[in-house]
Amino acid sequence: MRVHRFLDGGQAPTLGKVVCVGRNYAEHAKELGHAVPERPLLFMKPATSVVPLEEPIHWPVEEGICHHETELSVLIGTTLCRAHAEEARHAIIGWGIGLDLTLRDLQDKLKKAGHPWERAKAFDGAAPMSPFLRTDQWPKDWQDVHFGLLIDGVERQRGHTADMLMPILALLVHISHTFTLCPGDVVMTGTPAGVGPLVSGQQLTLTLHDQVFTSSVA
Ligand code: ZN
Predict the structure, then answer these.
(1) Which whole number is the average pLDDT over 189-200?
(2) 69 CA from centroid of ligand 1 (Å)
(3) For residues 29 and 36, is the Cβ–Cβ distance under 8 A?
(4) How many whole angstroms from 189 Cα to the centroid of ligand 1?
(5) pTM beyond cutoff 0.85
(6) Is the pLDDT of residue 191 over 80?
(7) What is the mean pLDDT of the chain?
(8) Which domains does the chain have, with CATH numbers?
(9) How many percent of the chain have pLDDT more than 90?
């Protein structure tokens, strides 16, 4: 996948990097036994990690279990560098849902050894991504949006953007003071509780506001 996709089929920017935030929902930090961080925990995935959500999900199985983290994802349309909130508001051109796939066994090993996480979070295919809704098709109140994940028809994750520890605009402003965000970059805004291992053959249903997307595990 070389370019992003809009749900309406219009032209979307070329894939850029993905900036992710860890522990942006208190209930998720708790389920993994972590404290809520004092400032957002940021990491990145390269453009090569982004694949269409509807394609069967793969990961390097020799590395152990792969967890699903279901995340509201925002598509950036204009450059943000040390931005203010109003600039950040105007820079968002799309809203989608993605999976921050995480090789949890490997991540635990890397963390224990004090090593970087990239092998566990930034591998090829680690960011299955839906097509994006344009901002004019999106609820006016960004912090009142529900999203979720069902696996084989059973609800596994349910998120509400009101529960974010750092809301969307503040997050973009914060990120832009460390990483310049460019057109085609995506910010994944953190996972709610309910993360768990994927198993071959599972059918995934991801919900985002009034949209439904499907995927499957290869
Ligand atoms: Zn995540």
Answers:
(1) 97
(2) 5
(3) yes
(4) 8
(5) yes
(6) yes
(7) 96
(8) 18-216 (3.90.850.10)
(9) 93
Buried b (16+ CB within 10 A) or exposed e, 26-63: eebbeeeeeeeeeebebbbbbbebbbebeeebbbeeeb
CA angle 53, 194, 113 (to 5 degrees): 90
Which residues place a Cβ less than 5 A from the ion ligand 1?
Answer: 69, 100, 191
Question: Cα–Cα distance between 129 and 113 in angstroms, integer?
Answer: 30
State in Å: Cα 14 to ligand 1 middle: 22
Sequence letter at residue 170: A
Ligand 1 centroid to residue 30 C-alpha, Å: 14
In a 13 Å sphere around the CA of 35, the CA atoms on its Cβ side amount to: 3
**Ligand 1 center from residue 71 Cα (angstroms):** 7
Q: For residue 87, how far is its CA from the centre of ligand 1 (angstroms)?
A: 25
152 alpha carbon – ligand 1 mean position (Å)? 21
**Separation of 12 CA from ligand 1 center, angstroms?**
24
99 is written with which tokens? 């999976």
Q: What is the spatial distance between Cα 118 and Cα 134, in angstroms, rounded to a whole number? A: 30
Model confidence pLDDT, tens digit, residues 49-99: 999 999 999 999 999 999 999 999 999 999 999 999 999 999 999 999 999
